[in-house]
Write a structure and sequence with these properties.
The structure is a single chain. By secondary structure, the chain is mainly α. The protein is about 75% helix and about 5% strand. A two-stranded antiparallel ribbon has the order 1-2. The mean pLDDT is about 85. Keywords: Membrane, Transmembrane, Transmembrane helix.
Length: about 140
């Protein structure tokens, strides 16, 4: 059940990050409900670089989905990795925009859950390896 939830969360991030990133690349002066004026606290003058980063995060989530399907043993590392990237992206975004939205909170919680799920999976793998070694 939780592996399916992890894959669903990763799929959600893949779709939303990729679509938002592409929209920002096509129109770097406006990104959804956010305008260029909201970038006053950050180092950017438009959304182009942020949109490219967002698109890359979406593609990384797609790679993780494929990797988890092909090599399920790497789920722990993948979960920790995509969760950490997502949490870092949200923190930087909140800093640049000097404000937090409901979407920021949602994606921060989603990234934290992905990291915690990865840590749990890693712990389970190590415990299983230890038990197998102890029984032999």
């Amino acid at each position: 059940m939780s592996k399916r939830l992890f894959c669903l969360a990763t799929l959600l991030v893949f779709i939303s990050a990729t679509l938002s990133g592409i929209a920002g690349i096509l129109n770097p002066n406006e990104l959804g409900m956010v305008n260029v004026e909201d970038l006053q606290n950050g180092p950017f003058t438009d959304f182009l670089i942020l949109s490219v980063i967002l698109t890359v995060v979406g593609i990384i989530n797609a790679i993780v989905l494929i990797m988890v399907r092909v090599k399920p043993g790497h789920l722990a590392q993948a979960g920790i990795g995509v969760g950490a990237i997502q949490v870092a992206l949200v923190i930087v975004q909140v800093y640049i925009f000097a404000g937090i939205t409901l979407f920021d909170i949602m994606y921060l919680l989603l990234g934290t859950w992905q990291m915690l799920y990865g840590i749990k999976a890693l712990h389970t793998q190590r415990l299983r390896a230890w038990w197998t070694k102890a029984v032999e």
